[in-house]
Design a protein that fits this description.
- By secondary structure, the protein is mainly alpha-helical.
- Helix content is 52%, strand content 6%.
- It has 72 helices and 23 strands.
- The strands form five sheets. The chain has a nine-stranded mixed beta sheet, sandwiched between helices. Strands 15-17-18-16-19-20-21 form a seven-stranded mixed beta sheet, with helices on both faces. The chain has a three-stranded antiparallel beta sheet with strand order 1-2-3.
- Helix 34 runs antiparallel to helix 35 and helix 53 packs antiparallel against helix 57.
């Protein structure tokens, strides 16, 4: 038992199989012993032993029969297979001649070679001994003459088992072992097959039971019989008979091979066939072994590894062993040399070997897919010169996909040979210069073999693509693939389904009509060409000449004179190729008037009966090429008697048997009903041209005789009848077809079907598109307010969506969804392909009918435009494809989504939620997905977004994409260009011009992603610009502009495709493209652009067109200027400004697609090569892209689609474009800039703090004239360094590769300018502060000098008093001592000439300055000033507006109308100016200096500047306004400055200062009197009187800076990181609190509100977290360390006196602390302490000082701390988030632009104007329109700027050029302010003394959550 054999021989089997594990596994898989799944599972195992062990287990689980098959397989693979491991049936008989046959039980090659006569035969003995299924009887070899072969036995039973009669039960298993061994037989019961057909009958050998005699004159013995049980026309054999038909016969029939017999075979073999092979006949298969002994046929090697193709044909060795048959009995009758199972195994072995050569074995089971081939990898960009055999398939596929005519070449590059056979370069092998090579050792393969191998290893979709591209290249296509890994040959019907051809038959030439049809559906006459025996010329070459028009030769078929065409075929024998001729409608050029198909059988018809039978059935005529006909061949041909097909013979009259052949043909003529014209003879004297001429004439004759026509689809019917496998009959394909037929059966009239079945994309979808655009453009607004009109449009939009949602799925859509949703992936793929084929076929039929009708009506109706227009619409609507069904899905999905968003449907009710996932899968599989619907010119944004989001998820987020787009005029070959470049499948056939835009995804190989920087290439194919069907429409230019803008905006690389024939169209296209590029430059996106000029074939095109390129650039410059004017751009622009364009590098000249005149023209080689060059350049460009321009991922691509489409829908694209990626990049840049700005500012503030301290520590002598200049120089150096550091940071950031920085490149200039502006601002601040500090210090120095003198006097007096007291006899008591000191102090102060600073009347000085300012303003002003009261009286009076302030005479409109608005404007202006002046006054007071006249002058200058601005802003005020305003502001200033002056005087009063020092002097006096050790006391006084005040001041200066630094680095810093973040934070907080008063403050007094907000936030922050103490401690710790370091420094320690010590200490700390000179003098008075001890004592008091200061600040509380600080943190943070302070001129929303000196002001969200107090003139109601809606509406405005003349909102930039007010990106963008307005409508009305706004009902539906969502989206906070 086989099972037991494996069981006990397991270890031996494992050891044996480990020698070659892979071939064993491949063989058992190919034989079907293991399933595909099992094979793949075993392949994955890396350990060979484990793989073999598991294989044996799987085999044993399959039972006894499986084990037996496995052992038989091993026996065929291993010649030395141990006998005891052979299958039981093979070991049952022991032979007596085993010694003679050392190979064991199986027939060996060696034996056969030694004794060619002793070939194994199956004779009568075997019939008598049915049990001997495989045994060799002793007398069989001893007496070979007695073993006459039995035909039935030979063809019926591979192992010699009986064909009829009883079967020995003991050997019944053996009798059928061969059948069971064939995997095809295991899969399906064998059915009888035909061998040779005659008419519709089937011909089989005449005698099924009689041995063949050896008389050659009896050909009938070899003729097929009509009574064959397999014949469809004959009687069916009984089931028992059918079971007896052997697998050998099935194998020969499936492969098309039938054995030849007797001398005829020998004669045929001896003639040396000549067609396309090594000898002239290349139909001969590869010899089994080149070293074979002449005269002896090689046997089939069992392992099949070294004899490729040897078993593929019984005639395998004709070419080298003429005259010898394979195995001939003594009687001369040929018999099969091996069992049929061996032949089949040999065939598989040959294929397997061939695939090994090509390295395709892994694709034998796991087929190569189209998407594998399309994947972008380093290999796909190489110059594909094959160097080894393994390169050939890829060379073929790559070149074919690129439509390169050299794709079929199989020549290897230099150095490709497996062995080095090259001779010495300087001579031959033995020194000769010339030598002849005796053998052809070239390593190459026949192109047909490569084609067969590639097709076998390709899945059905790749096969389709291969044949489709071959058809374009005009290569002959494989019609029947030979039987290689199947027992049957295969009809390639499915593979040809995708081919569509156009032609113009002569019957419609006059009307200039044409036909377009799928190739497989086109019925036409088929002419077949076959070879019988040998032939002296190439059949294929002859056919090429017949089919090629004059002067346009093309090699349709491979022939011997082509490159590698002479290489012997290994697996392609039996291949039937087909080619076609299609007329172009020109009688003088066309070879044939109607289409004709030509088939070509490779190999001898004797060897391929099945293929020949098929051709006789489907052909109108069969041309048989031969040199001679033997009697045997005559017999075979005579079996064709009764066939309806015409047979023609082409006789090569160059051999010696012409007469004999003609004789036999004359006998054959009546049988085949042949006439004289049916013999064509190639005479020796004639060349091939004459034969071609004759043949063409004959073919025309055949076509004119009403031949039968058949399409490839019709041929499939015949093929099935003959048992030929049709690849389309596979389960997946059939299942898909059944689904499709259910859908397409309902389609008759395309336009009607679309109306009835695809209802959502008809008028509903088109109306939706119109409504969406109208919501943006507001063209039909008329008198309705913008917000009301928008609400109406939104309601209309929702209504349309409701109507869509209420539509039920039609039956067609239900079936379509079922097909793409429920079928398995392979079935789904077939489903979509079938659908495409059927829909295209239907649409072509409809289109053809409508065109004909249109043509008729044009002639009949003349100028009846209406009927023609209706027909025109029908023609436009007759397109129907898969995209229409997908579009319908998208609309169902979108309608459902809109219902969910509106709350009309819950998520649980959704039924289309799974659709985006299905569409994403299709995109991954390579199907193009519609992006822009060309019919409605709209993007289904929700659908596209969700499909791409699903796609992003499916690829695991790895979705970086380079987007490539092609743009150009319609029908200039854009889709063909993309298809050629990337192997894509964009529709290109007539009537299927691309509409809209489609996107197709191409995967980049893992090993190439790093190099090109992306994971996918996304290719966008667009509809043609300037489409004729759109040209009639008014907005066709706009439509083209929209399309170009959108796709260029989405792309990284744009190919502008231009046909050179039409200069006008080219100019139009360039205009559109330039316009789009201008728009992209404005929004910061600069795609690369390549100009492709098609149909330029001259080799000198590039040089010749240099002038043209220059001219083109000039045109582009002109167009750029024109586009800039259209886009209302004021700056002068050239094309180079908007695009990085190099005319030399970025211009491509590509020849025309066709080489010759279609339809018979192949693709131009130059076209293919040029496109490949362009492709290589594009990938080089991708590799070298700037790292700053990183590819988009899918989520970014979605955002670009959304923002571009939204902008495109608006008329003004540039000012409508809003993109969250741009916004995010801008925000990040703003945040970074704010960080750099604070670093710069902080550094400058710290410098200023130290400089002020240094100045305060200097005397008047030190502050000489050069001090300020020195500081000025230092300031300049520092600012330059800081500025450069900021600029470098900006540069580094832009080069850092941070996300999407290229999008904000245009803002770089703003930030550069802001940096310069900041530098100037800081320069002004630092120099002013420095000058002020010097001025104050100089003033103080005078007082200090006087003070020092007074202190000297006092110290003298104290010293004298001390001596007097010591001289007294009695020691004074403390009280007495104090009295003496007080007496002395009083007397001294009375004696001192104390000089006090004079008290000035500041208000008088201010009044004087005011009068001087207004002295030139006329007498009226002087009178007003004269009447004015004392300035100090104005401080308590608030400024009130008066009517006389407005000068209204200037305006030419009613006063009543403008008064209110002017009043409000002036009120706001006044309030703002007063606040600004108060801030200035406060800063001066805070400096704690004395009043200076310059303060008043600066204040007046500020007021005048603002008044000038107001006048420029058209605000006309009276002189009284200016006078009163200045009086009010200066009155308030005078009062404040007076107090400041008085405070300064008080602080610097000499007596007061001396009185402050009295306690210290007394303390020193007392200690000296009582002679106490005063050192410690003096140290304490120094710490308390000198250090503590200095440290307190230090803290006041530094704490503010550190608070800002700490706050901005805390968790809350993000809220203050940019103005947008801050706006969002504030608005979110206000929404949470919902306090109306806060909203009023925010809207009306934004600046005050922000300041208060920031201060509150700062105080709350530090109160809650308590980190202020730590901040203070850190500041103190730093300065304390510096103090200790100074005390311990060598300079201080080396001092000899305390005076020197303190001087050194003060010098060390002069930049940090301001130590009071007065207190220091007291410490030094009579101080004789030791320096070391004094220093040590000071240090002991330092911790106490530190804690005291901390405690003092702690007691202040957080609020008081902020009032004490010199540097106000709230002001710095305010400046950071407040920005430029500009507000929208309409709604007063603040500007959010980053930097401080930007050119454009903008805000993310605008608000209803009524919130700012805007009121309708007529109704008195608050205005509720939004300026972001107004700017796209037809509304107008008037105000001060327009001199109260009406002006359209759309042109607002004429008056506000620095403001960019963008339309809202969506209708919900302003929901926040709509919600607030609706909530507080009445309160706002009361606030502004107006009536509440009459708000649209839509606003009442907005919820708080929606309001919050809207600002999240607007500020990009999601």
């Amino acid at each position: 038992m086989a099972f037991e054999t494996i069981r006990w021989g397991r270890e031996r089997l494992i050891a044996l199989l480990l020698t070659t594990p892979d071939p064993v596994l491949d063989e058992v898989a190919s034989l079907g012993i293991v399933t595909e799944e099992e094979y793949e599972a075993l392949e994955k195992l890396s350990e060979p032993r484990e793989r073999i062990r598991r294989l044996l287990i799987k085999i044993q689980r399959k039972g006894e029969r499986g084990c037996e098959q496995f052992l038989e397989c091993l026996q065929s693979l291993f010649p030395d297979f141990p006998p005891d491991l052979q299958p039981p049936g093979r070991r049952c008989v022991t032979q007596t001649n085993d010694a003679e046959n050392p190979e064991g039980g199986a027939f060996s090659e060696k034996n056969e070679a030694e004794n060619p006569q002793a070939a194994v035969t199956f004779g009568k003995n075997e019939l008598e001994n049915p049990g001997g299924a495989t045994s060799l009887e002793k007398n069989d070899l001893e007496n070979p003459e007695t073993t006459l072969p039995h035909e039935e036995n030979d063809l019926g039973n591979p192992d010699g088992s009986p064909s009829s009669g009883k079967i020995d039960p003991q050997n019944s298993e053996d009798a059928t072992s061969s059948e069971k061994n064939d995997p095809e037989k295991l899969e399906e019961p064998e059915k009888p097959e035909t061998v040779l057909s005659s008419g519709k009958g089937v011909v089989t050998p005449n005698s099924a039971t009689t041995p063949i005699k050896d008389e050659p004159e009896n050909p009938e013995t070899a003729l097929p019989s009509k009574n064959d049980p397999e014949s469809p026309g004959g009687a069916r054999s009984s089931e028992k008979d059918a079971a007896a038909v052997s697998s050998e016969r099935a194998d020969f029939e499936g492969s098309g091979n039938i054995p030849c017999h007797g001398e005829e075979r020998k004669n045929a073999a001896g003639k040396g066939n000549i067609e396309d092979g090594v000898t002239p006949d290349s139909d001969v298969s590869m010899p089994e072994s080149r070293a074979a002994t002449p005269g002896i046929a090689s046997s089939v090697e069992r392992n099949g590894a070294e004899t490729p193709g040897a078993a593929a044909s019984v005639e395998r060795s004709r070419a080298e062993t003429p005259g010898d048959s394979v195995s001939v009995a003594r009687s001369g009758t040929e018999v099969p040399e091996t069992s049929p199972n061996k032949v089949h195994t040999g065939r598989r072995g040959a294929l397997k070997t061939f695939l090994s050569k090509l390295k395709l074995k892994k694709f034998r089971n796991r087929k190569l897919r189209l998407r594998d081939l399309l994947q972008i990898s380093p290999d796909s960009l190489k110059d594909w010169t094959p160097h080894i055999l393994g390169d050939l398939p890829w060379h073929f596929l790559r070149k074919l996909m690129a439509l390169n005519g050299t794709a079929r070449s199989t020549s290897l590059g230099q150095g490709a040979s497996d062995e080095d056979t090259s001779e010495d370069e300087e001579g031959g092998m033995i020194g000769h210069v010339f030598s002849l090579r005796e053998d052809d050792s070239r390593v190459s393969l026949n192109p047909l073999d490569v084609l067969c191998a590639v097709l076998l290893c390709s899945d059905s979709f790749l096969q389709q693509e291969i044949l489709s591209k071959m058809s374009m290249c005009q290569f002959a296509l494989p019609l029947l693939l030979p039987a290689l890994d199947t027992p049957k040959c295969t009809l390639m019907l499915w593979a040809m389904r995708d081919i569509v051809r156009k032609w113009r038959p002569h019957s419609v030439a006059e009307s200039r009509g044409f036909r377009e049809e799928s190739l497989v559906l086109t019925a036409m006459p088929t002419i077949s060409f076959v070879r019988l025996g040998s032939c002296g010329f190439s059949k294929s070459k002859l056919l090429n000449e017949v089919l090629s028009p004059s002067q346009q030769h093309h090699d349709f078929f491979i022939h011997q004179d082509m490159e590698s065409g002479n290489i012997p075929r290994e697996i392609a024998d039996g291949l039937v190729e087909i080619s076609w001729y299609f007329p172009g409608g020109k009688e003088n050029l066309d070879l044939f008037p109607e289409p004709i198909a030509v088939t070509n059988l490779r190999g001898n018809i004797e060897s391929h009966w099945l293929q020949f039978s098929f051709l006789t059935e489907v052909s109108s005529a069969v041309f048989i090429l031969t040199e001679s006909i033997s009697e045997r061949e005559y017999a075979l041909l005579s079996s064709l008697q009764g066939s309806a097909t015409k047979y023609y013979f082409i006789l090569n009259n160059q051999a010696g048997k012409a007469k004999e052949t003609v004789g036999l043909l004359n006998i054959l003529a009546p049988l085949l009903d042949m006439k004289k014209s049916q013999l064509l003879v190639k005479e020796k004297s004639n060349n091939s041209a004459e034969l071609v001429k004759k043949l063409r004439s004959t073919l025309r004759g055949v076509m004119s005789s009403s031949p039968k026509s058949a399409s490839v689809r019709d041929m499939a019917v015949t093929a099935r009848e003959l048992g030929i496998h049709v690849e389309e009959d596979g389960g997946e394909c059939r299942t898909a077809l059944e689904h499709i037929e259910e859908i397409t059966a309902e389609i008759q009239d395309v336009a009607k079907y679309k109306r009835d079945m695809l209802r959502l994309q008809g008028d509903l979808w088109k109306n939706l598109a119109k409504v969406e655009k109208e919501m943006c453009r507001m063209k039909g607004q008329q008198d309705v307010s913008p917000e009301d009109y928008r609400s109406q449009l939104r309601e209309r939009w929702l209504e349309l969506r409701r109507q869509q949602n209420q539509c039920d799925l039609t039956s067609g859509m239900v079936k379509f969804i079922s097909g793409i949703g429920q079928l398995r992936p392979a079935e789904k793929h077939h489903f979509l392909k079938w659908m495409k084929f059927h829909l295209d076929h239907i649409a072509r039929g409809n289109l053809s009918r409508l065109r004909a009708e249109y043509k008729e009506k044009c002639h009949a109706l003349g100028d009846d435009a209406q009927q023609l227009a209706e027909l025109d619409k029908l023609i436009s609507a007759s397109s129907l494809g898969v995209e229409h069904f997908m579009r319908e899905l998208g609309q169902f999905y979108e309608a459902e989504c809109s219902m969910v968003k509106e709350g009309n449907m819950g998520n649980i009710q959704r039924q289309f939620i799974h659709l985006p996932g299905i569409a994403a899968d299709l995109m991954l599989e390579g199907f193009p997905m519609e992006l822009i619907d060309g019919d409605a010119s709209n993007i289904p944004l929700q659908w596209v977004t969700d499909v791409l989001t699903e796609l992003h998820a499916k690829v695991g987020g790895k979705s970086r994409m380079v987007v490539l787009t092609v743009l150009g005029v319609q029908s200039t070959g854009k889709s063909t260009l993309l298809n050629t470049m990337f192997g894509l499948q964009f529709a290109v056939s007539s009537g299927r011009c691309t509409r809209g835009a489609f996107m197709s995804l191409i995967k980049v190989a893992e090993n190439f992603r790093q190099e090109v920087g992306c994971d996918f290439i996304l290719v966008l194919d667009t509809e043609g610009l300037k489409a004729p069907e759109l040209a009639k429409l008014e907005d066709s230019y706009e439509h083209d502009n929209e399309l170009a803008t959108l796709v260029i905006g989405l792309s990284d690389i744009t190919i502008v495709n231009m046909a050179m024939e039409n200069a006008t169209e080219m100019k139009d296209v360039l205009q559109i493209v330039v316009h789009a590029f201008l728009r992209m430059e404005e929004i910061g996106h600069k795609p690369n652009c390549q100009f492709v000029h098609q149909n330029v074939s001259d080799v000198s095109a590039h040089e010749q067109n240099m002038r043209d390129r220059k001219h083109l650039l000039e045109q582009l410059d002109e167009m750029t200027k024109a586009a800039a004017r259209l886009e209302k751009q004021s700056r002068e622009m050239k094309f180079s400004d908007i695009m990085d364009y190099d005319p030399e590098k970025h211009s491509w000249y590509i020849p025309g697609l066709w080489h010759g005149v279609p339809p018979m023209a192949p693709v131009n080689m130059g076209y293919s090569e040029s496109v490949c060059e362009l492709k290589k350049y594009l990938f080089e460009f991708m590799k070298n892209r700037s790292p700053r321009r990183a590819p988009k991922d899918i989520s970014q691509f979605i955002e670009w689609v959304r923002s571009l489409w939204n902008a495109v829908k608006h008329e003004n694209f540039i000012f409508s474009f809003r993109n969250s990626l741009v916004a995010e990049a801008y925000t990040q840049l703003s945040v970074k800039y704010a960080e750099w700005e604070w670093e710069f500012r902080k550094e400058m503030h710290l410098w200023m703090s130290k400089t002020e301290t240094t100045i305060q520590n200097q005397s008047a002598d030190d502050l000489g004239p050069g001090t300020f200049e020195k500081l000025r120089l230092e300031v300049h150096q520092m600012l330059h360094s800081g500025e450069q550091k900021m600029l470098q940071s900006l540069q580094n950031y832009f080069e850092s590769g941070a996300g999407n920085l290229h999008l904000v490149e245009k803002y770089r200039e703003d930030f550069l300018r802001s940096t310069t502006f900041l530098r100037h601002e800081l320069e002004s601040y630092l120099l002013c502060k420095s000058e002020e500090a010097i001025c104050i210090q100089k003033g103080r120095s005078k007082i200090d000098h006087l003070q020092a003198g007074y202190m000297k006097v006092i110290e003298g007096k104290v010293d004298r008093l001390l001596r007097d007291c010591r001289e007294r006899e009695m020691e004074l008591m403390p009280k007495e001592l104090e009295r003496e000191f007080a007496k002395m102090w009083k007397e001294t102060l009375a004696e001192l000439p104390l000089e006090r600073l004079p008290l000035r009347q500041i208000h008088k000085d201010v009044h004087y300055q005011l009068c001087k300012d207004l002295e030139n303003r006329g007498s009226l002003v002087k009178q007003m000033l004269h009447k004015a009261q004392n300035l100090l009286t104005y401080q308590s009076k608030p400024f009130r507006m008066k009517k006389e302030y407005l000068d209204l005479a200037w305006y030419k409109v009613p006063v009543e109308f403008i008064t209110q608005q002017c009043w409000r404007e002036l009120e706001e202006f006044t309030k703002s100016l007063v606040e600004e002046c108060r801030r200035y006054i406060g800063q001066k007071v805070h400096s704690q200096g004395d009043y200076d006249q310059t303060y008043c002058r600066e204040l007046l200058w500020m007021i005048n500047e603002r008044l000038q601005e107001k006048i420029a802003g058209k605000m006309c005020t009276s002189a009284s306004f200016e006078v009163d305003l200045k009086l009010h502001i200066l009155g308030e200033a005078a009062s404040t400055f007076q107090k400041m002056h008085e405070d300064f005087l008080k602080k610097n009063d000499p007596q007061c200062r001396l009185e402050e020092l009295r306690p210290q002097y007394f303390s020193t006096f007392r200690d000296l009197y009582y002679e106490k050790d005063a050192c410690r006391k003096r140290a304490f006084d120094f710490s308390n009187q000198c250090l503590t005040p200095a440290l307190w001041e230090y803290m006041k200066k530094r704490l503010g800076i550190e608070i800002v630094d700490d706050f901005l680095s805390s968790g809350e810093s993000i809220e203050y990181g940019s103005r947008s973040f801050f706006q969002f934070t504030v608005q979110k907080k206000l929404l949470e609190e919902m306090d109306f008063d806060n909203y009023v403050k925010y809207v009306r007094n934004y600046e005050e509100f922000v300041k208060a907000w920031i201060e509150t936030c700062l105080i709350s922050h530090y109160r809650e977290i308590g980190s202020l103490r730590e901040l203070k401690r850190a500041i103190l710790a730093t300065i304390m360390k510096k103090i200790r370091d100074a005390l311990e420094s060598s300079e201080c320690q080396d001092a000899l006196t305390i005076s020197e010590f303190l001087e050194q200490f003060c010098q060390a700390m002069c930049k940090e602390l301001v130590i009071s000179k007065d207190s220091l003098e007291v410490i030094l008075f009579k101080n004789t302490a030791s320096v070391g001890q004094f220093s040590a004592d000071i240090q002991t008091f330092l911790p106490q000082v530190e804690e005291g200061i901390l405690l003092g600040w702690e007691e202040l509380g957080v609020e008081m701390v902020f009032t004490q600080l010199q540097f106000k943190p709230q002001d710095e943070i305010f400046q950071r988030v407040f920005g430029c302070g500009k507000q929208c001129p309409f709604c007063k929303v603040p500007c959010e632009a980053g930097g401080s000196d930007h050119k454009q002001h903008f805000a993310s969200v605008h608000r209803p104007q009524g919130l700012g107090g805007c009121i309708y003139e007529t109704t008195g109601r608050l205005v509720y329109s939004l300026c972001s809606s107004d700017v796209v509406s037809s509304n107008s405005f008037r105000n001060l700027r327009t001199a109260f003349q009406w002006h359209p909102y759309k042109d607002y930039r004429q008056f506000y050029p620095t403001w960019c007010i963008q339309p809202d990106p969506s209708i919900s963008a302003s929901d926040y302010w709509k919600f607030i307005f609706r909530k507080f409508n009445r309160q706002f009305a009361r606030e502004y003394n107006a009536e509440p706004a009459d708000l649209p009902p839509e606003w009442k539906k907005i919820t708080k959550e929606q309001a919050l969502d809207s600002i999240r989206e607007a500020f990009n906070m999601e």
